[in-house]
């Protein structure tokens, strides 16, 4: 199968997991976004071997390649309207930095554990 076709099918598969996660959240009323539930479903399928990583790698890579484009409008908005951050700006900056560090630590820790286990 051509690479373009693989990417389309893999992105569609990832979307299906997102959709299932959203419906599970809607049905159960959990205070967790459906997208997170979908990611947990994906993680479970990958860790159990039900879904080999090769079945989603090109689609995930494609979406990650364009992820920075989603941050451009937010950045431009902050630059154009700094008054919006005047009251709570420092708190938001601290929260953003802390969240980024925490995310990087957890991602690195998880990657290390999976690579030692032979899963990544």
TrEMBL record:
A cellular-component GO term for this protein: plasma membrane
Keywords annotated in UniProt: Cell membrane, Membrane, Transmembrane, Transmembrane helix
Top-rank taxon: Bacteria
Membrane topology note: Multi-pass membrane protein
Protein's cellular compartments: Cell membrane
Name of this chain's protein: Holin-like protein
Pfam families for the chain: LrgA
Annotated TM spans: 7-24, 36-56, 63-84, 90-109
InterPro entries for this protein: LrgA/CidA (IPR005538)
